[in-house]
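Q: Focus on the chain.
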Amino acid sequence: QVQVQESGGGLVQVGGSLGLSCAASGRSFSNYAMGWFRQAPGKEREFVAAITWSGGTTYYGDSVKGRVTITSDIQKKMVRLQMNSLKPEDTAVYYCAFQWYSGGVSHGLMQASAYDYWGQGTQVTVSS
């Protein structure tokens, strides 16, 4: 069993920056990937970013590419999502997720259904 816990979030003005953190804990594990998704009211859950266990490969959703950076601390089993140039449409609940991943086919890293464990979510609100 793996527990996932997000931190950060809050209210930020248009054009501002915000960082979210996520920690995974529980049993000992090595080969995994972590990702961020978001869901706005009335909309489907959307892929934001993902990073593999080695931290060497990152993936970004089209709507955030160039404005968001995902990084990892392998020893601490934490990932951080740095968001810049925030827009009102970035307002959503942001979820951190964990999946077992040993490399190979990567399209599952961008699919919510491929993740095994989820955090509770943290609200990000961008005000204009």
